[in-house]
Amino acid sequence: MRAAAVQGRSLGLKNPMALAVELVNHYSLNRKQANWQEFGEVAFHLLSQWPPDLAYVILYGLREVKAMEGRDVVPFVLKAAEMMPHFNPTSANMRLVAPRNNPQLLTDSSERARSAAKLLAREISNVPLRWASGIYRSMDGTIKPFVAEQLKAYNPVGAAILLSDHGSWLLTKSGVLKGLMRICFGRGVE
Question: Which of 58, 69, 95, 175 has the greatest number of CB atoms lying within 10 Å of its CB?
Fold first, then answer.
């Protein structure tokens, strides 16, 4: 929150919640279907216009917007951010002139992945380990190395635990099922 406040002040912003309201209105978020493919433009907008901590606060601010009452789009935007290396911003219905953070986001999928990984590293760092482990293990393989890199920079201790592969994933639903399968049928079963 402090980092987001500093980033916001450096950009001359007084209220990040106003930006969340703006996103809801610009992209008609209260009318979108509950499908992550519908939220690519929103994820791209967050990643290309705001520093990662501020983008994270704005993202979670969507839950507080009155027009979004009863709808939680945060998981869909996060999934769209995860799929950002595959997103084509030139064919999307964007509500911005040009990326403020990095103009290469329009043309370079690696830059989009790196930018999305910054947001995803914050999400992983702010949830319990068993959830973080499940989130990381189920991520799209294209973005995983970028998330690992950003996680090491943003949260080195969390990255050491999460990336060590010492079984923290066993505490997830898929980990329990996989563990039981291995116990019953041997190590080669996935």
Answer: 58
Identity at 3, one-letter amino acid code: A
pLDDT digits (tens, 9 = 90+) for 94-130: 666 556 667 778 888 999 999 999 999 999 999 888 8
> Rounded to the nearest 5 degrees, what angle is found at the Cα of 33, between the Cα atoms of 30 and 39?
80
Q: Map out the domains of the chain as residue ranges.
A: 2-185
Burial class of residue 29 in the structure, from the number of CB atoms within 10 Å of its CB (0-12 exposed, 13-18 middle, 19+ buried): buried
Q: Are 23 and 58 in contact (CB under 8 A)?
A: yes
Residue pLDDT, tens place only, 132-144: 888 898 999 999 9
Task: Report how far residue 72's alpha carbon sits from residue 117's, in angstroms, rounded to the nearest whole number.
Answer: 21
Residue 168 phi, psi (nearest 5): -60, -25
